[in-house]
Design goal:
The complex is a heterodimer. Chain A is of the alpha+beta class. Chain A has a domain of 72 residues: Arc Repressor Mutant, subunit A, CATH 1.10.10.10. In chain A, 64% of the residues lie in helices and 13% in strands. In chain A, a hairpin with a 2-residue loop joins β2 and β3. Chain B is an alpha+beta fold. Chain B folds into two domains: 109 residues, START domain (Alpha-D-Glucose-1,6-Bisphosphate, Chain A, domain 4, 2-Layer Sandwich), CATH 3.30.530; 32 residues. Chain B is 30% helix and 40% strand. Chain B is built from three helices and eight strands, in the order ββααββββββα. Chain B has an eight-stranded antiparallel beta sheet, covered by helices on one side. The longest helix of chain B has 30 residues. The two termini of chain B are 31 Å apart. The chains are: A alpha+beta, B alpha+beta. At the A-B interface, α6 of A face β1, β2, α1, α2 and α3 of B.
């Protein structure tokens, strides 16, 4: 299966969203993250790999442990992609309003 | 800058909501969605078909200067209640995007102001996000074109 590793696919999964919420509070090891889920450890590892691959998580070596951090820049990217869409509709609606004002005066 | 148009798109959901308040009576706001010649003006598209009634169809197409169709979409109305609501499907043609379901709600706030709420349901959260992303790409292109026009004037 060819999994597309983009942020939007990454956040479409409920377990991965839960992982992001956990790590947002503080950096955690894979073991500590897995302890919060009933799913098998390899499944959690796979989720972490996907989140890391699309840069929503960053790995940091601390002694013998690897900690997972949230990458705030990437999270902002998700919020940012809504803004151009909003802008697009704002422009259209402004135009609608201008055009309909003419109908108003014609009445 | 005042943010008249708002978009709510919660993470991981397959829906989004667009809301906008207009300085227009609700009758005029509804007409902007119900009369093809008005739709053409503000949407900047050609209306090929528009049958504003239950089970009625609609089809839009936008062409570039050479007459090549760059955007086309179609759908069916399921509810069409004057000055109140429109429920319709929306399908962008030749894009591979899934069909979406749109609930448009028209509401009078006063004699001269009104509110539009557009609630859109997509096939999946991933589809919704892809749709938003394309919207962004399009927005970037538009901004780029505008920049180019300005730049050409400076030449």
């Amino acid at each position: 299966m060819n999994l597309r590793r983009d942020v939007f696919q990454a956040i479409a999964d409920p377990t991965r969203r839960a992982i992001l919420v956990l790590v947002a509070v503080h950096a955690m090891t894979a073991g500590a993250i897995a302890a919060n889920f009933d799913t098998a450890r390899p499944t959690v590892s796979k989720h972490l790999a996907i989140l890391t691959e699309c840069e929503l998580l960053r790995q940091e070596q601390n002694g013998r442990e690897i900690y997972y951090h949230l990458n705030p820049d990437k999270m902002k990217e998700i919020a940012d992609f809504i803004e151009p869409f909003r802008q697009h509709w704002d422009d259209k609606f402004n135009k609608l309003e201008d055009i309909m004002r003419q109908y108003k005066t014609k009445k | 800058m005042e943010r008249k148009t708002q978009v709510q798109a919660a993470e991981g959901k397959q829906e989004l909501t667009i809301t906008r308040e207009f300085e227009l009576p609700v009758e005029l706001l509804f007409r902007a969605y119900a009369e093809p010649e008005i739709i053409e003006q503000w949407m900047g598209t050609k209306v090929l078909a528009f049958n504003g009634q239950k089970f009625g169809n609609w089809q839009y197409a936008t062409s570039d200067k050479e007459g090549k169709v760059v955007f086309s979409a179609n759908g069916t109305f399921h509810e069409f209640v004057t000055d109140q609501k429109i429920t319709r499907t929306f399908e962008m043609e030749n894009t591979g995007f899934g069909i979406q379901l749109e609930f448009l709600n028209f509401e009078a706030l006063s004699d001269d102001t009104s509110k539009l709420t557009v609630h859109i349901l997509y096939g999946s959260p991933a589809e919704r996000d892809q749709f938003l992303k394309i919207g962004m790409d399009k927005g970037m292109n538009m901004a780029h074109n505008r920049l180019q026009q300005v730049a050409e004037k400076l030449k």
